[in-house]
């Protein structure tokens, strides 16, 4: 306390000057409408700037929650798309039945761990059996196809992404009726995959889009996989080797959607029955 009093006493002249200046300015503002208006405008500008900065900080703090809400809304919107429904279209003579049933639902999830520089990369998502996740479910993001669910625990699951040595996925050209097999050779970087088994008569060019089809049994048809970057064919071969630039950037992957195929069990049961009949 003694030091504080000494501080004020040593600076008593300066403090008295400041106090008199404040009193003088107050009297001027009160007696002059122009000065009063100028002070009010300045005060509003300062308070507005402070409120704007406060709002920016608050929005930044709430950004993760906002992203989760947007991901949930996107999952609901994807589930409502026409491509998520199975057509019951039947043409019986002159009677046309155009009923649809839901085939795909989408469950939003967040990537909580991942790798992009290994031969066998992986993703870990914060969704598990309590959320209805099962092995062999497809995973997509807002940009395109991501991978396949492999192992599932109660609260988490792991995903084999497209950038994995065991990736096998069917892909087709968006604007051409040709399809092939997607793979990721270990000598490729995380931004590219290979499309094989495209017949030599296929008509496509650099820049064309390759999308998913239903042959993989993982995704709805039409989910982007990548863009044709380069392609070649050996003179003695009948099939092109095509390199794609992936639609999904795995180095920036955050929110994804797990694809729930509501008709998968029925399809697999029927196909297994056919395989047993061939044995």
UniProtKB/TrEMBL annotation:
It comes from the Bacteria. GO terms for biological process: regulation of cell shape. Residues 111-259 form the Rod shape-determining protein MreC beta-barrel core domain. Signal peptide: none annotated. One of its GO terms (cellular component) is plasma membrane. The keyword Magnesium does not apply. Keywords: Cell shape. PANTHER family: CELL SHAPE-DETERMINING PROTEIN MREC. Belongs to the MreC family. NCBIfam families: PRK13922.9-3 (NF010532). This is Cell shape-determining protein MreC. It comes from Phaeocystidibacter marisrubri.
């Amino acid at each position: 306390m003694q030091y504080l009093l000494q501080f004020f006493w040593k600076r008593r002249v300066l403090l008295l000057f400041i106090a008199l200046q404040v009193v003088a300015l107050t009297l001027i503002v009160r007696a002059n409408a122009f000065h009063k208006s100028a002070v009010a405008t300045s005060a509003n500008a300062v308070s507005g700037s402070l409120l704007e900065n406060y709002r920016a900080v608050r929005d930044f703090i709430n950004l993760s929650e906002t992203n989760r809400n947007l991901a949930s809304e996107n999952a609901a919107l994807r589930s409502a798309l026409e491509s998520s429904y199975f057509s019951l279209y039947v043409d019986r003579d002159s009677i046309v039945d155009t009923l649809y049933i839901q085939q795909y639902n989408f469950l939003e999830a967040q990537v909580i761990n991942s790798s992009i520089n290994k031969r066998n990369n992986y993703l870990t998502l914060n969704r598990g059996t309590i959320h209805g996740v099962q092995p062999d479910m497809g995973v997509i993001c807002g940009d395109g196809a991501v991978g396949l669910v492999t192992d599932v625990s109660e609260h988490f699951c792991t995903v084999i992404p497209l950038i994995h040595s065991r990736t096998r996925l069917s892909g087709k050209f968006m604007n051409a009726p040709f399809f092939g097999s997607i793979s990721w050779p270990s000598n490729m970087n995380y931004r590219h995959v290979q499309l094989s088994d495209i017949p030599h008569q296929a008509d496509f060019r650099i820049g064309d889009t390759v999308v998913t089809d239903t042959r993989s049994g993982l995704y709805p048809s039409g989910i982007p996989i990548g863009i044709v970057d380069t392609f070649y064919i050996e003179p003695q071969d009948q099939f092109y080797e095509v390199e794609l630039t992936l639609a999904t950037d795995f180095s920036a992957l955050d929110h994804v959607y797990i694809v729930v195929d509501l008709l998968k069990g029925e399809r697999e049961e029927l196909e297994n029955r056919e395989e047993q009949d061939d044995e």
